C-alpha cells in the first residue's frame, strides 16, 4: 500500500515475500518486508521479487516536490 502523507509518500508492506524498491541512482534493491519506507525521487517497485529491467510487472514512480 502507498500512503500519501503531508510531507510525501510512504510504501507500507505487510507481506512475507516483500516489496522491492530500486531508487534511481542506487545500485541495488531495498527489500521492504513487513515494514515501511519513504518514496522519494524516481524508482521502480516490484512485488515479491527483485526488480529486473525485463520484468513486465514493474511499477515505475516519480515523486515531485511536495
What distinguishing features does this structure have?
FHA domain-containing protein, three-stranded antiparallel sheet, SMAD_FHA_dom_sf, mainly beta, single chain, four-stranded antiparallel sheet, 47% strand
Q: How would you describe this protein?
A:
This is FHA domain-containing protein. InterPro entries: SMAD_FHA_dom_sf (IPR008984). By secondary structure, this protein is an all-beta fold. Helices cover 0% and strands 47% of the residues. It has one domain (2-62). It has strands at residues 2-5, 8-12, 19-23, 30-32, 36-39, 42-47, 59-62.
Helix-strand string: EEEEEEE
> Which band does the percent of strand residues land in?
over 45%
Strand numbers in spatial order across the main sheet: 4-3-6-7
What's the helical proportion of residues?
A: under 10%
Query: pLDDT average, as an integer?
Result: 92
Number of strands: 7
Structure summarized in a few sentences:
This is FHA domain-containing protein. The protein is mostly beta strands. The chain is built from no helices and 7 strands.
Topology:
Layout (H helix, E strand, L loop, with lengths): L1 E4 L2 E5 L6 E5 L6 E3 L3 E4 L2 E6 L11 E4 L4
Organism: Acidihalobacter aeolianus
InterPro entries: SMAD_FHA_dom_sf
Protein name: FHA domain-containing protein
Amino acid at each position: 500500500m502507498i500512503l500519501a502523507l503531508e510531507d510525501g509518500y510512504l510504501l507500507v508492506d505487510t507481506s512475507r515475500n516483500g516489496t522491492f524498491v530500486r531508487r534511481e541512482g542506487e545500485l541495488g534493491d531495498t527489500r521492504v518486508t513487513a515494514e515501511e519506507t519513504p518514496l522519494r525521487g524516481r524508482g521502480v517497485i516490484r512485488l515479491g521479487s527483485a526488480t529486473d529491467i525485463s520484468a513486465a510487472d514493474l511499477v515505475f514512480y516519480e515523486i515531485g516536490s511536495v
